[in-house]
Design goal:
- The chain is α+β, with helices and mostly antiparallel strands and about 240 residues long.
- The protein contains 9 helices and 10 strands.
- The chain is elongated.
Length: about 240
């Protein structure tokens, strides 16, 4: 089924609107990515004691949205380990935008900095898959940093942009709690400066499943936990128009 994605509603928490105003490039990329035409699969729904109907396949929806985000250089699956963003081997945030040079400095300092770890000289070169790089490309990145600093010395880099992480959540409604716990865990190290949560609007939620996380549910849960969630949040209600 050919569709066009659309942002049908939005909410902001913890001064999220103010922070978004300072992230004009990020906002443009997200809004544009979530307004693209794509093809998603239809799935026949057979609810108990209700008429059958043609719904939307959640997996194809996720894949289509990830293609849209990738088109605008928004990084995909991102997990946090030792205060560093990686892109392979573990489940994490669905997408992210961050200062790559700053992230590299944190990684380098963890493995080869003034403190370092045991066998860090060897382990750092084995990380190319987790960083989504080819082996030769990754070796070049590490050697470029080594040429700038003395052995066992920290690579100091100023952070030049805010760290953004986000979720595309079209699964069971209970998953929002897992997502928020992940945010709380990552917010201490390396720190998430801005969080984007994308959930289905009412119409799309009905096409997916009765148990799908909806924009309204997400809004209610985030509001309930604002006493412990301090990260600025942009909650997006995603819908589709058939073409």
């Amino acid at each position: 089924m050919k569709v066009r994605f659309k942002i049908s509603d939005e909410r902001f928490f913890n001064n999220g609107k103010i922070i978004l105003n300072s992230l004009s490039e990020v906002e443009d990329r997200i809004r544009t990515a979530l307004s693209q035409e794509e093809t998603i699969d239809i799935k026949r729904r057979r609810p108990k004691n209700k008429p059958e109907y043609d719904g939307v396949d959640a997996k194809s929806l996720n894949k289509a949205l990830r293609r849209c985000l990738d088109t605008y250089s928004i990084k995909g699956e991102t997990h946090v380990e030792n205060g560093v963003f990686f892109h392979k081997t573990k489940e994490g945030f669905d997408f992210s935008i961050y200062d790559e040079n700053y992230n590299m400095s944190r990684l380098y300092n963890y493995y080869q900095g003034s403190i370092g770890v045991l066998d860090g000289d060897k382990k750092i070169f084995e990380l190319y898959k987790k960083m989504g790089c080819e082996k030769k490309e990754w070796k070049g990145k590490i050697e470029a940093i080594q040429s700038k600093v003395e052995y066992n010395t920290d690579y100091i880099v100023d952070k030049e942009m805010l760290t953004v992480a986000g979720e595309l959540q079209f699964g069971n409604w209970a998953l929002i709690y897992r997502d928020l716990f992940r945010l709380l865990d990552a917010d201490s190290d390396p720190g998430i400066d801005f969080y984007i949560y994308v959930a289905a609007d009412g119409e799309l939620s009905n096409l997916l499943s009765d148990q799908t996380v909806s924009f309204k549910q997400a809004n209610d849960v985030i509001s309930e936990y604002l006493s412990i969630i301090k990260t600025p949040i942009w909650l997006i209600s995603l819908g589709i128009d058939k073409i």
